[in-house]
């Protein structure tokens, strides 16, 4: 089934090495497996800590796939590409 696109939200806390690695790994994965079919929103909880509670973020970095539903959540720096692809239900291309 062809998706319209992936709406991804990455929660980080400042520009830590782990946060930067998570964003770099996510961009690389998306460019490889979802070229032109994704958006990434980065939310820095250092700037807006209230969002952590609202979105039930217990660890960072956390990636949330908002669309397509159902919502999926992955914690960590996203360095294990296979785990991220499975977690986001993206078939390896």
Automatic annotation (TrEMBL):
SMART domains: KaiB. Residues 9-90 form the KaiB domain. It holds the Pfam family KaiB. InterPro entries: KaiB-like (IPR039022), KaiB_domain (IPR011649), Thioredoxin-like_sf (IPR036249). SUPFAM superfamilies: Thioredoxin-like. GO terms for biological process: rhythmic process. This is Circadian clock protein.
